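Reminder to self: C-alpha cells first, then the designed residues, so the page reads top to bottom the way the pipeline ran.
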C-alpha cells in the first residue's frame, strides 16, 4: 500500500513537471497576450522578461511577436482553408489567418545576453502564419501585413 502511494506521488510529480514544460513552450505562453498587458512604453522589455523569452543559448531574440487576440480565435486558424508553404521554409505547411490580427513586434535595439535586452515596440496588424497538428497551433511562423 505504501509503495502504491509512493508510485502515485512520483507519477503526479512527473506529470506536473512535464505539463509545466509544455506550458512554457506553448504558442499561448510565448506569443499570446490577451487582453494586452498595460505597459505601453516598455511593453516589449517587460513582456520578454516576464515570459523569459530568449534564444536557447541565452542570447537576446532579435525579433519577437505578441498577438493580442483570444486563444480560441488563434486556434481557429488551424481550420483555415488557406494552407500553404510557410514563408521561410520550402517543406513545411502553414495555415494563414483569414483576418488580420493585432500584434506587437518587439525588435532588439540593445543588448546581446538575456536579460540585458532592450526592444523597440511596433504595434501592427497582419495575417498570421502557424503550423498546426491535430490538437491545434504548434508554432508561430510569422506574419504579413
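Designed residues (145 positions):
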Amino acid at each position: 500500500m505504501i509503495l502504491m502511494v509512493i508510485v502515485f506521488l512520483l507519477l503526479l510529480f512527473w506529470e506536473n513537471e512535464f505539463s509545466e514544460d509544455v506550458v512554457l513552450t506553448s504558442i499561448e505562453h510565448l506569443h499570446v497576450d490577451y487582453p494586452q498587458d498595460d505597459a505601453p512604453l516598455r511593453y516589449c522589455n517587460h513582456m520578454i522578461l516576464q515570459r523569459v523569452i530568449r534564444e536557447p543559448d541565452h542570447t537576446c531574440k532579435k525579433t519577437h511577436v505578441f498577438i493580442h487576440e483570444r486563444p480560441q480565435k488563434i486556434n481557429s486558424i488551424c481550420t483555415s482553408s488557406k494552407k500553404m508553404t510557410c514563408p521561410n521554409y520550402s517543406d513545411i505547411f502553414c495555415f494563414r489567418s483569414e483576418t488580420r490580427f493585432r500584434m506587437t513586434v518587439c525588435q532588439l535595439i540593445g543588448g546581446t545576453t538575456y536579460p540585458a535586452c532592450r526592444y523597440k515596440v511596433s504595434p501592427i496588424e497582419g495575417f498570421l502564419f502557424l503550423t498546426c497538428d491535430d490538437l491545434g497551433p504548434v508554432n508561430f511562423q510569422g506574419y504579413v501585413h
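The chain has one domain: 31-144.
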